[in-house]
Recover the amino acids of this structure.
């Protein structure tokens, strides 16, 4: 079983739709959960950061962590064409220097106008 | 504010040739520095990290090496490139003492012929 599983998509939605992106993981030691957005031929950009379980909201983005189910989600409200990108989840058991983030393979999202 | 620079953006090299990729960070002191590789269809894989000048930790055995000659400079090298070294190489940094909030550069796309 892979440590982090993420559906690669592609996921296509119309402008204004609510988008749900998800990752599952197997390592119960993960405590820190991140979502990155990566545009084509660019580096990943940190979008959301959550410690342990719960929800975090930032504008149109909401991150949810359910540690009991080993399941994390990113919701995008009122999706825009500029949201078209690959979304990567990442997680880590610790916040120490030199920590290797464990990434999902990414979900490609396309928002049409 | 902090910025991270990688160059070159694109590189095409023959098999057996040497490699040198450079990454520099501005706006912070003593950052933790990381080299990742992103291969097609695979997640990001941590190659090296550094918590200080001259301090390099390797995460996977490979044909590559890393060096940190200055506080905010991180170099990825190879003496003889293999076809399997093709990929998207990303440099990242995090605040000293932490490891989860990693910020990425825009990467170098390396093609081996």
């Amino acid at each position: 079983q892979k440590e982090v599983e993420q559906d690669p998509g592609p996921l296509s939605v119309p402008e204004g739709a609510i988008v749900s992106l998800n990752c599952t993981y197997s390592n119960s030691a993960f405590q820190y959960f991140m979502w990155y957005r990566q545009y084509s031929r660019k580096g990943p950009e940190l979008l959301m950061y959550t410690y342990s379980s719960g929800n975090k909201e930032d504008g149109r983005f909401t991150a949810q962590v359910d540690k009991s189910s080993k399941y994390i989600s990113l919701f995008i409200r009122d999706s825009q064409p500029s949201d078209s990108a690959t979304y990567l989840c990442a997680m880590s058991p610790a916040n120490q220097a030199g920590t290797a983030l464990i990434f999902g393979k990414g979900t490609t999202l396309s928002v049409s106008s | 504010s902090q910025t991270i620079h990688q160059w070159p953006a694109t590189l095409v090299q023959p098999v057996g040739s040497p490699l040198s990729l450079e990454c520099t960070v501005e706006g912070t002191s003593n950052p933790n520095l990381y080299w990742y590789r992103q291969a097609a269809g695979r997640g990001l894989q941590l190659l090296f990290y550094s918590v200080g000048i001259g301090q390099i930790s390797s995460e996977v055995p490979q044909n590559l090496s890393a060096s940190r000659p200055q506080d905010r400079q991180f170099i990825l090298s190879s003496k003889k490139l293999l076809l399997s070294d093709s990929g998207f190489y990303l440099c990242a940094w995090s605040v000293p003492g932490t490891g989860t909030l990693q910020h990425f550069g825009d990467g170098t796309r390396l093609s081996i012929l």
About this structure: The longest strand of chain B covers residues 44-52.
